[in-house]
Amino acid sequence: MNVLILSPRLDVTFKEGPVPDQRGPIPPIRIHYKNFIENLEKSHKEKNDNVIVLEKPLWQFSKTSMEEISKWEKQYDLVYFPHKNNFQLPQFLYSKLRIKYYMQMVFPWLFQIDEQGWGPTSAAYPIMASPKTVRNAEFINLLRDKQKQGKSKFDQPSTSEWNEKDYVLFICQIPHDESIKFHGNGVSVIEALSHTVNWCLVNNKKLIIKGHPVNPGSMQEMKNTFPESDFTWKDSMNINDLLKNSRIVVTVNSGVGMEALLYNKPVVIFGKADYDRIVYRATRSDFHIVMDNVWSRPELETFHYTTNTNENFLSEYYSKMVDTSKYESVKNYVD
Q: Which of 91, 103, 298, 321 sits at a 20 to 30 Å CA gap from 162?
């Protein structure tokens, strides 16, 4: 079998931008990409497949010419395409050419390989634990150890003493992020924050807002609308400290919602997410009702936020992903 692996250049921006000739350092979070590509290539070569790895800045793959696509169709039996869903490519491309899409997930050493896309676009969605799900103690313990160390997907400030309790924690996302664009159910980050602010004001509840750590500049519109002089923003706090003492976590569909499950916190979301079958889903029209119910009597809701339920879900989630730290995990996805 002839296999083409499209590999993003890891030392440059994934968004459209400059491409220097000289290589720079690879950010730590992208080392997992490197491991994934190397293990994927090795796995196919062990099957005696002919493998070509084509490296370009990620954004350039979106601008691939029709002429080059036609060559792929003639030359390769399988193409691995990064950071995309099938609906983002021309219909004729994925109807004639076998493509597997791959994406780095919220726990950055885990990747998803799927023939439809990532997250709620993938064939694996919706992810739900079943009576057959086996608790993955190794994975759960690893996640809990990372939280004890104050770690998250993105770098965090050091942990600190934090005594505030009984507050709603709103998790911001980058407004133009593809998880919002594709899986946000049409609800923007600022709209979700507006609903949350309104509910907290009406019900006299404390609200804490956590800006996105990677792109603080993208938070400016929200900070202009809900200024730090009037609202409590805690960008300089570790997300684990904020999660531990929160009463409810609200977001459009941030991966932090998955981390909140480890603290057994009720999570309210507007969009679609890998974890949306084990949290509370709200719409514009019923958000206040959902929040009232979760705040006052979460034990009577559809879901019971118990360690067993959340850990079973996370174990099932892990089983649908590729663990780049384990070669056998990547190899199992190669056919």
A: 298
User: How far apart are the C-alpha atoms of 188 and 329, rounded to whole Å?
Assistant: 36
- For 192, residues 6+ apart whose C-beta sits below 8 A from its C-beta are 170, 250, 251, 252, 270
Clarify whether residues 290 and 311 are in a common domain.
yes
Distance CA 118, CA 223 (A): 31
262-291 tens-digit pLDDT: 999 999 999 999 999 999 999 999 999 999
113 and 183 assigned to the same domain: no
Beta-bridge partners for 55 = 7
Whether residue 147 sits in one domain with residue 82: no
14 with 59: CB under 8 angstroms? yes
> What's the start-to-end Cα distance of the chain, in Å?
10
Whole-angstrom distance, CA of residue 58 vs CA of residue 114? 18
Number of domains in the chain: 2
Distance (Å, whole) CA 45 – CA 54? 15
Domain that holds residue 120: 2-124+320-331
pLDDT in tens, 243-254: 999 999 999 999
In 10 A of CB 32, how many CB atoms? 20
Domain assignment of residue 32, yes or no? yes
Asked if 83 and 30 touch (Cβ cutoff 8 Å), the reply is: no
